[in-house]
Amino acid sequence: MPQYTRRDFIKTAAFSAAALAAPGLLRAAEAPARRPNVLFILADDLGWSDTTINGTTRYYETPNIEKLARLGMRFTHAYAANPLCSPTRASIMTGLYPARIGIIQACCHVPTVKLEATLQKRGPAWAKSLMVDSVTRLKREYVTLAESFKGAGYRTGHFGKWHLGPEPYDPFHQGFDVDVPHTPAPGPGGGYLAPWKFLSTTQLQGQPGEHIEDRMAREAVGFMKECKAKGTPFYMSYWSFSVHAPLSAKQEPVDHFMAKADPASPQRNPVYAAMVKSLDDAVGTLLAALDEEGLADNTIIVFMSDNGGYATQVAETSPAGFHDIPVTSNTPLRGGKATIYEGGTREPCAIVWPGKVKPASVSDALLSSVDFHPTLLDMCGIKPRDGLKFDGVSQVPALLGRGAPRKVVFCHFPFPVPTLGTVPSTYVRKGDWKLIRFYCDNPDQTDRHELYNLKDDLGETKDLAAAMPDKVKELGLLIDRFLADTQAVVPEANPAYDPKAKPPAAGPRAATPEGAANGRHRARTPSA
């Protein structure tokens, strides 16, 4: 049975009482009965080449994700709004760019509550630019995707990772009726198998060895069944913990992928492959439940990842012994999680819309994670609240084969990760062209640019900036306008910069994604 909290009961009862007391609200709740359900599956740290839907892996096995893609449309140019998780999650919830929200790094689990992004006044001698301090909570003044659906009479449920803030910035305070397991944790610290160290016993308990993804899938199925029994349409965020660090997996699939690994392949870590399989198994559980409950023909499904795959090593694995093997590879894309290159933000993505989207179709339309809020409302016939504005656009024209509604995609990532060689930066993609602005990165601390033609050079190996100054200027103006429109906080030259100074040595946790960026910029890798 689903593990709902007392808070869930109180909120549900309050909404029901309000509906009975207000005829207008009751009609709003009854009206969407014929509207489709929505299931939003968001993987954590799953790279563009980590599933079989893009034809870029022979190692990982994802038959259920592949089935989902066959049921709908696969987007080959889908982008997370940031190469880290919290900013992308905020963009999905609000339909706004992280640059506008101010959440520009994965720090929404830290104790410090910071609601406005600011530029630091001082910087370390090794840094060419002053650094931006991120917002650490998704402010409640934003209208979230869950609130939009709840206002239209949907029952709303969140299952899995949140990482946009603890109470009072948790899912219950952001439009969700149900939140399991109700944790602000950035990942399943201590491992995926029960007993779960990252959860208190009041949040969720599991049988020894139970996998958290298996449990989350069962809880989500219980929510679906409850909504069906009540005749209520649902919006559900299934935001998996997989495949975020720590590298932790069941022994049986690890053994399977050990035997399958090719030492010459960049994708050969059997623990990570087993983690991908657990994610795919969860997707299979959800799809099977939709079929069994007769809900599949009336349920929209979105599948996406929050940022690119983690393309380096970790400090330890469980089972042990695989820490010296890179976690994954985003090949043919360059870079990965926490980088500004394609491997950091280009994601596997598929959308199922029964009766509307042609099965097994493929779109090369540009899509950003900021598009999901307006797109899903449009698909369900829900009008946004009066005055609500989005940075995102509805992708319904692309889904119906009527052209690409988006011409450009932006990413603002003013966050250095010295251990990965990441420099504070912003990019714009327009058509086949991508321009990256690296702040204060020239020897004289002026901005440096890289320019790529992704049609000819998907791996971003040939920088054309010096050869094409007019294109750099054209796209640079788009970045200028984007930064001005979103009122983004932009790095400036650090007056204390010393070219002889070196970043501090990485700490013992720096080799893992859990070497947390804790709201201050340090020479560590990001936590999510």
Distinctive features:
single chain; 528 residues; alpha/beta; eight-stranded mixed beta sheet; four-stranded antiparallel beta sheet; 13 helices; 27% helix; disordered N terminus
Give a topology summary.
Blueprint: H1 6-21, H2 23-30, E1 37-43, H3 63-71, E2 73-75, E3 78-79, H4 85-94, H5 98-101, E4 118-119, E5 132-133, H6 145-151, E6 155-160, E7 178-180, H7 212-230, E8 234-239, E9 247-248, H8 251-260, H9 270-292, E10 299-305, E11 317-318, H10 342-345, E12 346-347, E13 350-352, E14 361-363, E15 367-368, H11 372-379, H12 396-399, E16 408-413, E17 425-430, E18 433-438, E19 448-453, H13 469-486
Parallel strand pairs: 1-8, 1-10, 2-14, 3-15, 6-7, 6-8, 9-11
Antiparallel strand pairs: 2-13, 3-12, 4-5, 10-13, 16-17, 17-18, 18-19
* Mean pLDDT score: 90
Number of helices: 13
The main sheet orders its strands as 7-6-8-1-10-13-2-14
Q: What is the 3D shape?
A: globular
The main sheet comes to:
8 strands, mixed
Distance between the termini: 29 Å
Fraction in beta strands: 5-15%
As an assembly, this protein is single chain
Low-pLDDT windows of residues: 1-33, 507-528
| Annotation, overall tally of beta strands | 19
Class by SSE composition: alpha/beta
Amount of helix: 25-40%
- Radius of gyration, taken over Cα atoms and rounded to an integer in Å: 22 Å
Describe it.
The protein has 528 residues and is an alpha/beta fold. It is 27% helix and 14% strand. Helix 1 (6-21) crosses helix 2. The protein is globular. The relative contact order is 0.18.
